[in-house]
Design brief:
Distance between the termini: 51 Å
Helix content: under 10%
Number of helices: 0
Radius of gyration: 14 Å
Length: 110
Amino acid sequence: SKQSKKRSIRQQVAQASPGAETPESGATQTGSSVEVLSPLNTSTGQKFIDLVVRYPMGSTVKLTVNGQPLPDAIATQVQPDETTNQTTQVWYRIPLKSGKNILLVQSEGG
């Protein structure tokens, strides 16, 4: 019988500044930083995951998965909101490996 392998996700959110701390999963940063909106759970049996983050308008974010840049083929959607001066970005179907996965979102500028 096929056994389902659990995949854990350790989310890290960091700003691109010297000495910046990278909080563990579940932690969010406020103000001029990036906030992970989804996934909120850190364990999944899925092979793919959607990631939703919010960050200040005018900023650029870079996403790496397990230390590797996200492939260009991954679909993403950017939704600026001028009333909150925030941008929400969604990446769809990010591939996960079996075992621990680290998603790192870094803010550049803003």
